[in-house]
Amino acid sequence: MIQPQTLGFLTDLVDNNNREWFQANKERYDTARENLIAFTTELISKVHQIDPGVSADLDPKKSVMRIYRDIRFRKDKTPYKNNFGISIPSHGLKLGGAEYYLQIQPGKSFIAGGYWMPEAEHLKAIRQEIDYNAADLKKIIDEPEFVKLFGDFKKQEQLKTVPRDYSADNENIELLKLKSFVVFHPLNDKQIQSADAVKLIAGLCSKIYPLNAFLKNAIG
Question: pLDDT by residue (tens digit) across 194-207?
Answer without folding.
Answer: 999 999 999 999 99
